[in-house]
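RECORD TYPE: protein structure
NAME: GH26 domain-containing protein
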Amino acid sequence: MIEINIKRRRRSVWLWILCGVVMLIQLAMFGYVGYNQYRVVDKQDWTIHTRLSGYPLAKAEPVEGVYLGGYVLQNPSIDFSMKTFNERTGRPHASFFKYVGYGKPFPAKWVEQVKSVGAVPHIAFEPNGGLDEVQDNAYLQQFADEAGKAGVPVFMRFASEMNGTWTAYSGDPVKYIEKWKLVHGIFEERAPNIVMTWAVLSVPEETVESFYPGDDYVDWVGVNVYSVKYHNDSRLHAADFEDPLDLLNFVYDRFSRTKPIMVSEYGATHYTVTDEKTDNGFAADKISRFYQGLPDKYPRVKAVFYFDVNNTAEYNAKRRINDYSVTTEKEVLAAYSGAISRPEYLEKVEPASVQGTSADQTFTYRGLIYGKDGEIFADEAFYTRTLGLKLEKDGGSVKAGKDGQSVQVKSSKKRIWAGYHYINYLPRYRSVTALPLKETLEPLGYRVEITDLDVYVEPPAS
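PREDICTED:
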């Protein structure tokens, strides 16, 4: 009898557990539907354009246009030659880069080779032994002195991709910023032709800002972007749908108002070991989308470097996944050559001495924009960072003001698709507190025009 009662109690417990699971599933489904219906908005390819005056150019920054750059030092199919790369692609490139480990001498011979093809050097200077090896000592001072003798601007991409976990200088933003400022100070004093370029990988975004040394210590902001068919060498993490331009948005929107943006590495795979398939069309499409889109949608991108490497044959076993080479496949090369034929792509770098020159600039904002009830909404950061408006929140409304004028508008809190989480690649939605463009800006004297997916904002006459 006791045994029967125990069995009944166990059966009852399991029934309650089953009912609870069913209820949780129902609640989750209801929440998911409600979440998508009331909170999440569809992302579209909106671009906000505005022209502003009085922007001080950074070192070697062109007023308009994009420097063409490349990396050829791991491509035996063109004999690692910058000259051959230029010939194959049909355009002289303004800059080429080289990885230099911290502790290695300044690559003076290579710098002269770069200059011989009419380009300027870009050095990815990496403290692969960790941040503690970076000291104000004879080595770093001599490195700076040699760089100062180059006679041309030298882009110095110090300790890039620190926002991930794969570098020896990741994980400690405080120490990273301390060492960055140390290096910046030495180069500023001993090699004023150095253009300090702070660069991250496009993901993870969450850690990016914690490593930023500040506008006073950075000349250019860089971002590395890659178009791959799969993440993590896993067919479960398909990435073929990703728009390479979207991968720019976080860094671009955050930093382009005060700094020129450099795509310090870009590559699109045409072969991956993940599925062991060649797909030249994938690479051609991504390259065309990226290079054709930069001048119009991202005018603050002032340099872009193609990573012409077949990683499947490289020394680092962990990276033997994708073939990014652009010079080995006719279809891929044709796409690249066609895209860079636009006149906005530049073959020569400006002198470093242009720093501080005032110029008019076109600024754009991308990603955190959506349409609702016939109105276009943009994230608050557009109004504060790009236009310099002051926002004061009052419950569900916001007071937006500038130059003694103000307007009260109702804010819209939504969530918008923002890619995938870096670790598990589940969909990621970013919370947005957005304001209606016309309702906010027109009472302040701005003119707002909408053409298809482009929004043009003209500031009030001064």
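COMMENT: The radius of gyration is 25 Å.
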